[in-house]
């Protein structure tokens, strides 16, 4: 399993044929054994580094996360960060090791603590502020510090002005530094376009490895080779899952019965692959892709196919969760409803068997909420009603379908299932609402219509310009961009608050939010070039090891 890759044709436009992964070989036993040997060396090295240098330990943990191999060492990582955070608190906000006045050290610690759910006061950055309340200009000469500060600035929450200032300061100085750089220029460019906190780590593994290849220490070489092998192994798992999704979709026959709808199993799977990143969640990713499929299908039924009378009957059927009310509906709608009910029952049965709780009521409620929200939008369009901003967003966060995805993720993971948590889940808590809002706003930026769909979607920008008559399209779009940034800050705060939800569930919701930008960054040809690039990298191109022949 090396640098020679089987040619696999994958794109995001309508797909009817299953990708042929039959010629892609399974990793050999020797390959797996070598991976296991390297894997066992890492905790030993980490324990050795911890006893010598807390800072080097944090740098190594950051590298493990960037290489997407940290899932192997979660116990060791969490134990160390927890201990280091307690030392930080006991020391009154000092790092507890040499380098307390170093911008890189402080920024790295702030980011790692925050990413892991520890509330860190931003006044730790006050030591870098001058008498005028601004970051000291001489810091701009510290390239590593600027990069770390820029990364840390994305962990801000509402009201933390110092991190807003850090973002502006670091971004400007990184841009200004590029003409003076040679090899580092590409690294800075990538960093500015793909900040760690709002990007999908596994999608960036190859870039991180390439940027790290100048590091030639024994530990660095080990982590690089382990990351490459792990990427190839996980890639094989994803290829198998994708083939399952294509076969499921082909067997359903919905593509033939709903010819008006999008036929994009690859895109549906990419949502689940990006959201549930731990390789152990293989079955969950396949089931989540099915859920995403039905969200897209229902959207198309409302947006491009059904008449208002048909959509009312369709919604009644969903609310009753039965097929008796659908006799007057077109055949394609009946096919969709039957398949949705059967698949939801199947997922509920799996959850009951595995986790001892039947989620049917919650899953039904989620689908009902989505369908009702779609019907509200359909009625708005049919009557020419332009909703207020408040009306539009209250309904719009539901009509994204993101809450349906979130509810399914919760039960697929099966962690923390109890009445209290489910009551919270059923009422769309903020940790679910904020990703939905970010999705709605990104979608409404309207960089392009979704592929070749000819439907009549609403738009926050249209509502905004209707209420603010003097606004321009540019100012309206800037307003939406600012709203997305502020919503990210609210989501960051949710990560720091005590919660009944598991860390795995929170991580999945953050990953889904990170995926949004990739899913809605259309070019002038109504394509998604960034996402298509990642698909090719993630699913079609393995990474050669140093000792493999080209």
TrEMBL record:
Question: InterPro entries given for it?
Answer: Isoprenoid_synthase_dom_sf, Terpene_cyclase-like_1_C, Terpene_cyclase_plant_C1, Terpene_synth_N, Terpene_synth_N_sf, Terpene_synthase-like, Terpene_synthase_metal-bd, Terpenoid_cyclase/PrenylTrfase
Q: Write down a Pfam family by its short name.
A: Terpene_synth_C
Question: Gene3D superfamilies, from UniProt?
Answer: Farnesyl Diphosphate Synthase, Terpene synthase, N-terminal domain
Ranges for domain Terpene synthase N-terminal = 28-179
Q: Which CDD domains match?
A: Terpene_cyclase_plant_C1
Terpene synthase metal-binding domain location, by residue?
251-490
| Swiss-Prot/TrEMBL cofactor(s) | Mg(2+)
Query: Which BP terms from GO are recorded?
Result: diterpenoid biosynthetic process
User: What terms describe the molecular function in GO for this protein?
Assistant: magnesium ion binding; terpene synthase activity
Assigned keywords, A-Z = Lyase, Magnesium, Metal-binding
Q: What is this protein called?
A: Uncharacterized protein
Q: Which organism is it from?
A: Aquilegia coerulea (Rocky mountain columbine)
